[in-house]
Write a structure and sequence with these properties.
With 295 residues, the chain is of the alpha+beta class. The chain has twelve helices and four strands. It has one domain.
């Protein structure tokens, strides 16, 4: 496929306008050295920089007409000269190269294995977001990650929630932040090298990580899919922190009181809704990985 300069610049502009409302407030806060425990997470926890997120890529198999802006970007190569249909004028084009696709083969295969394994597993909606509670278990106030925000139930109340609930966190990148006293309380023991054996499609962090998988495949896949995964991750993070032990009322976030029966029901319902949103995005990523391996 060949996109004219008019076509691809319009798509690039639409992409930037879509994501600017998320990126620009973060950059303003960063400049003012003001932290936001919810809205800064996707920019600080993940390695994809704001400028990278705002840049649009068409994905492998699409050439961009008159696109010198892309000629120096990683993964791109000149695709020869193409004739404009109306004028027969020949212009330079750029595209993600087949050589770059080949160089990313191991990454693509690894992600495909993880995505397929996650999609094939039955979803679990019984964790109730206790990973965030386990991350502050038996810590002093100054040790808590978001120390500027008080614990809604206080330290003793928070510890009691951890001690009186079954913890079954399947996501290594959440489990690795458990405090030392909390780690043995987890009924599962996920490791960094066995994610495919534990990831399941009901996990909030597993679905949030679809954004990570998508941007790791950039520029091999369309940035439209990266943006879809980003927006899902944004909404999940908001819900995740509403269920966390922190009191974030000043940020306009009403708590999901997972220590109560009603709160558990609310959490599980939201978790199901996010799993339904995540499923087609996961399938799109699987299809893209399969296409790239074929290529």
């Amino acid at each position: 496929m060949l996109l004219s300069r008019e076509e691809w610049t319009q798509r690039a502009q639409s992409h930037r306008e879509r994501l600017a409302p998320y990126v620009e407030p973060h950059l303003a806060r960063r400049g003012a050295r003001v932290k936001h425990p919810v809205n800064d997470f996707l920019f600080t926890y993940y390695s994809y920089r704001p400028a990278q997120l705002l840049r649009w890529h068409p994905g492998f198999g699409v050439s961009l007409e008159d696109s010198s802006e892309y000629s120096s970007l990683k993964g791109y190569a000149p695709a020869g000269r193409a004739a404009r249909p109306a004028t027969a004028e020949r212009v330079e084009t750029n595209t993600v190269s087949a050589a770059y696709v080949s160089s990313q083969h191991l990454l693509i295969e690894t992600l495909l294995k993880l995505l397929r394994a996650t999609a094939s597993r039955e979803a679990n909606f019984g964790c109730f977001g206790l990973h965030e509670w386990a991350m502050v278990y038996r810590l002093t106030p100054e040790q808590v990650r978001h120390a500027d925000w008080p614990l809604r139930l206080g330290a003793a109340g928070t510890d009691r929630v951890v001690e009186t609930h079954r913890i079954a966190c399947s996501h290594f990148d959440a489990y690795r932040f458990f405090t030392p006293p909390a780690a043995p309380l987890n009924t599962l023991s996920p490791r960094s090298d066995d994610r495919a054996a534990f990831e399941q499609p009901g996990c909030l962090h597993g679905n949030m990580d679809l954004y990570k998988h998508a941007f790791r495949l950039s520029p091999l896949i369309s940035s439209d899919l990266v943006a879809d995964c980003f927006e899902l991750a944004w909404d999940i993070r908001t819900m995740d922190m509403r269920a966390a032990p922190y009191d974030l009322a000043e940020l306009g976030l009403d708590p999901i009181r997972i220590e109560t029966a009603a709160g558990k029901q609310e959490y599980a319902a939201a978790q199901r809704a996010f799993a339904e949103r995540a499923a087609p995005l996961r399938e799109c990523l699987i299809a893209e990985c399969e296409r790239l391996i074929e290529a």
